[in-house]
Amino acid sequence: MSIETAAPSDAGLAAPSITIRQAVLADLDLIAPLFDLYRQFYSQPGDLDGARAFLRQRFDHGESVIFLALQDGGALGFAQIYPSFSSISMARELILYDLFVAEAGRKRGVGKALLDAAVAYGKAIGAAGMNLTTAHTNDTAQSLYRANGWTPEEVYRQFNMDLRS
To answer: What's the whole-model pTM score?
Structure first.
């Protein structure tokens, strides 16, 4: 799956197009630095080797689908989707677990293009729905999600348990 989009430029001139496509293992070195920055955004220490190893495992085991935003051979952002299921609806669902746009790609439609690619993928495989979670304080992301038809969960409360301790 590949999507081309023209990004607006500040001067009103056509900017080079941004391509959104499904990533493959050969893209690992493009995605890993973005994934590391994404984790740092959520207050985790930088760990490029760990990021690369984590993503490599997802590719090796077919445990996620990653969409990559590219322009002129450089990576601007990514979205990572994990499969899930709903017992209530007895249907496949997806979790848009990671969405990150590097500084160079912000305010250029990259986040929206990645969201659109994730939704198109979900529809193409017959998923019944997709969910995501973001920080309560991430107003920029929440505005993007709302503007693109995502609605906040109001029926169920989510609980977490750390199993590492």
So the answer is: 0.87
